[in-house]
Design goal:
Blueprint (H helix, E strand, L loop, with lengths): L2 H12 L2 H14 L11 E5 L5 H8 L3 E6 L2 H9 L7 E4 L13 E7 L10 H11 E10 L5 H10 L3 H13 L4 E6 L4 E7 L1
Parallel strand pairs: 1-2, 1-4, 2-3, 4-5
Antiparallel strand pairs: 5-7, 6-7
Helix pairs in contact: 1-4, 2-3
Length: 194
């Protein structure tokens, strides 16, 4: 993924943080019962961006740590973090995160995997697996495509087109189980067991 791009667009990305919070709240309400972790569990949000998902998970009673390779995104996430609801740090999952094995009950990542080159995704999945005690969830695209998403993802330069075709098979090469559930038009949760 092009980290420089996210350093540049972080302020623009933040314009949509309220929309993202509403969207995450909606998705999380539809996934009731899909998170097999207790309240007050520790959650790691990899690729947290401006912190919208981390904030929503904190609202649900979880202890959340957000990491992102973009220092601009983390800077904004900290500003968007009322009452220090979550902790945030700059870190790159592809280079290894500074946490011990099984440090978190759940590791979650939203719309990160599709932006990685196909050859980097196994390392990303493996790092998430290393850190999760109970479950890993990748919120990302399903195979339903929309023209606007196609254009945006093409401009971003990620690997969206390959991801939507091969995501489950790639994850099955790393995790014990992988189940895909769609929760909105293009939104899927890939629920993985370490």
């Amino acid at each position: 993924m092009k980290r420089g791009l996210f350093e540049t667009i972080a302020p623009v990305y933040n314009i949509f943080v309220r929309y993202q919070v509403r969207s995450f709240r909606t998705i999380l309400s539809r996934t009731n019962g899909q998170l097999f972790i207790p309240g007050n569990a520790r959650i790691l949000d990899i690729g947290c961006g401006t912190g919208a998902l981390a904030f929503c998970l904190h609202e649900m009673g979880y202890r959340v740590t957000g990491v992102d390779a973009s220092s601009a995104m983390i800077s904004i996430a900290k500003k968007n973090n009322p009452g220090n609801a979550a902790s945030f740090m700059v870190a790159n999952a592809l280079k290894g995160l500074p946490f011990a094995d099984k440090s978190f009950d759940l590791v979650i990542s939203s719309y990160v995997a599709h932006g990685l080159p196909e050859e980097q995704r196994p390392a990303f999945f493996t790092e998430a697996k290393r850190l999760a005690r109970v479950q890993v969830v990748f919120q990302d695209y399903n195979k339903k495509r929309k023209f606007l998403s196609d254009i945006i993802e093409w401009l971003e330069g990620g690997n969206y087109f390959s991801f939507i075709q091969h995501a489950q098979e790639e994850m099955k090469g790393v995790f014990s189980t992988v189940e895909m559930r769609s929760f909105a038009a293009q939104v899927a949760w890939y629920i993985c067991t370490p």
